[in-house]
Write a structure and sequence with these properties.
The chain has 1 helix and 3 strands, in the order αβββ. It is an alpha+beta fold and about 70 residues long. A 3-stranded antiparallel β-sheet has the order 1-2-3, covered by helices on one side. A hairpin with a 5-residue loop joins strand 1 and strand 2. The longest helix is centred in the middle third of the chain and has 20 residues, at about 15-35. The chain is flat and about 40 Å long. The two termini are about 20 Å apart.
């Protein structure tokens, strides 16, 4: 029997920081669309202990440190 892949909302995958980062990106998109124009930059790099350091810059800046073991498969 072939493996079936189930579509799962990414907001339910990964660890707490991963989910918070996705929520922040989603909110930045919604706020920009509501306002009518916006600018958003996202930067990611691997930091200490293989943590993903994610910075989201909109009118404010947000930083998330996502442990490697909390990343979804």
């Amino acid at each position: 029997m072939a493996d079936r892949q189930v579509d799962v909302d990414p907001e339910y995958l990964g660890g707490e920081q991963y989910r918070a980062a996705l929520k922040c990106i989603k909110q930045a998109l919604v706020d920009g669309l509501r306002h009518g124009y916006s600018k958003c930059a996202i930067e990611c790099r691997i930091g200490n202990n293989n943590r993903r350091e994610l910075v989201i810059e909109t009118s404010k800046s947000y930083k998330f440190n996502i442990p490697e073991d909390e990343m979804p498969d």
